[in-house]
Design a protein that fits this description.
Keywords: Coiled coil. The protein is mainly α and 76 residues long. It is built from two helices and no strands. 92% of the residues lie in helices and 0% in strands. The longest helix is centred in the middle third of the chain and has 53 residues.
């Protein structure tokens, strides 16, 4: 849903930039397009980092479980 909205917004901004009557208007619209693209890329990077962090957290939980099991076995 969010992707579709962003895509539609970028299309509209691109059309407006192409049809801009002045260089100033063109530059302002181009800056907006660049900012939106940067935000999209940053969001994708954050999502990727979150997935990596969750995977690392799961690995650590599994290591903790194995250590606890090993410790219990050694005590008996």
């Amino acid at each position: 849903m969010r992707e579709k909205i962003m895509e539609d917004l970028l299309k509209k901004l691109n059309e407006r930039a192409i049809n801009a009557k002045t260089q100033k208007e063109f530059l302002a619209l181009t800056r907006q397009i660049i900012k939106i693209e940067e935000l999209r890329l940053n969001r994708e990077r954050m999502e990727d980092l979150e997935r990596r962090m969750l995977a690392i957290e799961q690995i650590l939980v599994n290591i903790d479980r194995m250590v606890m099991k090993q410790t219990k076995v050694e005590r008996w």
